[in-house]
Write a structure and sequence with these properties.
- By secondary structure, the chain is α+β, with helices and mostly antiparallel strands.
- It has one domain (7-197).
- It has seven helices and six strands.
- It has a six-stranded mixed β-sheet.
- The radius of gyration is 17 Å and the shape is globular.
Length: 206
């Protein structure tokens, strides 16, 4: 697919089906883009589509099949929008750190592909509002899905979830207890964590 230069081409991009229930259009919303009048469009649509499909098929669809509808807070970012957000302190890491993360259409420094979305799971947001520990969802994902990284935020228990072709398997949080929950070689990384998520729905199978 060519770089988007017309409304009809943007419509075609938006209609690309990434997985069973997700289309590319859902991932293009940008508050920075809306407020500052900047288009949030990929320079390399084919790479963005490929990475986005893996994010949706491997991570987002299983979450939605298990917990019900998920809400996309922030997902794909163009290099231009991410760079603007970083330079203006709008909660965007540098482009180099976001390649193969929020910037789906650029490979990272090692030539690897990846994609990130910040999502809210309304089912769990309600649990969290009623006192549930964010680590319950973190450990459920850790035990069930091939994620690369997770980062949890206090509002609505939203979290960044990243697919990467060489997964890091690391979880961090801005919700207390803050910092790194787990990463490879930590004593808690392996084994069964099901005591954390007792009462969760049974994981859906493909």
């Amino acid at each position: 697919m060519q770089k988007v230069t017309s409304v009809s081409a943007l419509e075609d991009l938006g209609r690309v089906r990434l997985s069973k229930t997700f289309y590319f259009r859902e991932f293009l919303y940008s508050e920075i883009g809306n407020l500052y009048g900047m288009p949030n469009l990929p320079d390399d649509p084919d790479l963005a589509i490929t990475a986005g499909r893996l994010l949706c098929e491997e991570l987002l669809e299983p979450l939605q099949d298990t917990f019900g509808r998920i809400a996309i807070r922030s997902a794909y970012r163009s290099s231009a929008i991410n760079d603007f957000g970083n330079k203006n302190k709008l909660n965007c890491a540098s482009n180099e750190k976001n390649y193969a993360a929020h910037i789906w259409d650029r490979l990272d420094a090692k030539g690897h592909m990846g994609a990130t979305a910040c999502i809210v799971i309304p089912w769990f947001a309600d649990c969290y509002a009623n006192g549930a520990d964010w680590r319950a969802m973190a450990w459920w994902i850790h035990d069930h899905l091939p994620y690369s990284s997770l980062y949890f935020f206090p509002k609505l228990a939203a979290f960044n979830i990243r697919w990467h072709e060489h997964p890091e398997r690391r979880i961090d949080s801005y919700i207390p207890p803050k910092g790194c929950l787990t990463k490879p070689n930590m004593p808690n990384h392996d084994g069964d964590h099901s005591d954390w998520y007792s009462g969760f729905p049974t994981a859906a199978t493909k």
